[in-house]
Design brief:
With about 90 residues, the chain is mainly alpha-helical. The chain is about 85% helix and about 0% strand. It is built from three helices and no strands. The protein has helices spanning about 5-30, 35-55, 60-85. α2 (about 35-55) runs antiparallel to α3 (about 60-85). It is elongated. The protein starts with a helix and ends with a helix.
Length: about 90
Amino acid sequence: MTDKQKANKNMTIVAINMALLIAYTLLIRIYGGGGEGVIFLAFIIAMHFALCLLLAIIPNLGKGFLLSALAVLLIGFSTCYVAYTIH
């Protein structure tokens, strides 16, 4: 497998994880209600982060899931904060 194919596979993994993050953030924000929604969203983001770290152990997919874990951590919790401060 060439470096370009590996990079494409890694970016595909990151893109799928970001799409999932956006989808469940919007769903929880729309249907989650008030103050308890932010706690539930933070829990889901933490579980997503942990799952990405766990899947980073897989040899051929490790870098993609490690990048996804970092993106979920950085983007997810900042989005969580922003989503619940805008009224």
